[in-house]
Write a structure and sequence with these properties.
By secondary structure, this protein is α/β, with parallel strands linked by helices. It is built from 12 helices and 10 strands. It has a 6-stranded parallel β-sheet, with helices on both faces. A two-stranded parallel sheet has the order 6-8. Strands 7-10 form a two-stranded antiparallel sheet. Helix 3 crosses helix 4 and helix 4 runs parallel beside helix 5.
């Protein structure tokens, strides 16, 4: 999240991506939908059950609805869902009837990283993943695929160097990197010969409503949508619809058996991101927020300044190598989808 931004920064005329987006999105949607459908029939996924943990967040709600639209029977695990984490027998029974399980469970990182919050951030991820592992081991007919959330914070914080699935993980001991490492260690803790496992190393997920973008929109409309910190920090991102389509892609492509970066192919700097957002919202200026102001503001509103200031320049090699076509390759395409031009 950003907390301020660029006084007197006006828009410079840029390429109008509207027509490019309209054509490429419709073309890719039709071709990939037909392809997914044929693969689902081929692999007998149609009308099967999927178990989703952590379905109460904006990502979980969206993919639950989309999977139902695709013809899947969806069951959920969570505090207010059909199953709870303390119901091991119920989870095991649901897993025995599910072709795929997706675990997105975990406390939001959008908070002050006090020792108590850090413990809860870590334990809410590792413990739920460990429970899922134990329940799958207890299955007589385990799911064919387990997709488990992870984070791009597992990589070093870089500006110029681009990280892919082949890159080394962070070695600085950064808290969120250690969380991602332990999260994935819990995922791969035991041998599960009948269940394919893929860690979803997720970037910033963009949605018109929900997530960090909704907060940035509020700031922009208040005139506080300018550069955060130096503005040089890189922001890897993915449109919520591409997030869902990537899940379908991994389900259909059994050769994908290692972690996947859920990131669009064109990361941008914070300065570029905020300028593009202001343009999409037709907000001409935004006050900048220098790093010291972000640190103060983060404490005031109860979040962590690193969420706005850390740089992650991450893309996926696995997705293009296996043939996935992004619906939203460019940030402008995502914004046109959220706020169509007149």
């Amino acid at each position: 999240m950003g907390y301020g931004v660029d006084l007197g920064v006006f828009y410079i005329p840029a390429i109008d991506y509207t027509l490019i987006f309209m054509f490429s999105y419709k073309s890719n949607t039709v071709s990939n939908s037909i392809y997914h459908y044929s693969l689902f029939i081929k692999h007998d996924y149609m009308a099967k059950q999927i178990l989703i943990a952590g379905a109460s967040g904006f990502i979980g709600q969206y993919i639950s609805r989309k999977f139902r639209e695709e013809g899947w029977k969806v069951k959920t695990i969570g505090r207010s869902d059909e199953l709870s984490w303390d119901d091991g027998e119920g989870i095991t029974a649901a897993l025995n009837q599910s072709a795929v399980v997706i675990n997105l469970a975990g406390k939001s990182v959008n908070c002050r990283h006090t020792e108590a919050n850090k413990r809860e951030i870590l334990e809410s991820r590792v413990k739920t993943t460990a429970i899922m592992n134990e329940c799958i081991r207890a299955c007589s007919k385990p799911p064919e695929l387990w997709l488990n959330a992870s984070g791009m914070s597992i990589y070093p914080r870089t500006v110029d160097e681009v990280c892919t699935e082949e890159s080394d993980t962070d070695k600085e001991g950064i808290f969120m990197a250690e969380v991602a490492k332990q999260w994935e260690a819990a995922l791969y803790q035991y041998e599960l010969p009948k269940t394919r496992r893929v860690a979803l190393r997720t970037s910033i997920v963009l949605a018109k409503e929900g997530g960090s973008l909704a907060e940035l929109v509020k700031l922009c409309k208040l005139g506080l949508g300018g550069t955060v910190g130096s503005g040089k920090q890189m922001m890897s991102w993915i449109h919520l619809e591409d997030y869902f389509q990537v899940l379908l892609w991994i389900i259909a492509h059994k050769e994908i058996t290692a972690p996947v970066n859920l990131c669009a192919p064109k990361p941008v700097s914070n300065r570029y991101f905020m300028k593009a957002l202001r343009k999409a919202l037709k907000v001409p200026i935004g006050l900048p927020a220098p790093a010291f102001a972000v640190k103060i503001g983060a404490k005031v509103i109860g979040t962590e300044d690193s969420l706005a200031l850390d740089s992650y320049n991450v893309v996926s090699k696995v997705l293009p190598q296996t043939g996935y076509t992004f619906r939203f390759e460019l940030l402008e395409q995502a914004f046109v989808n959220f706020w169509p031009k007149d």
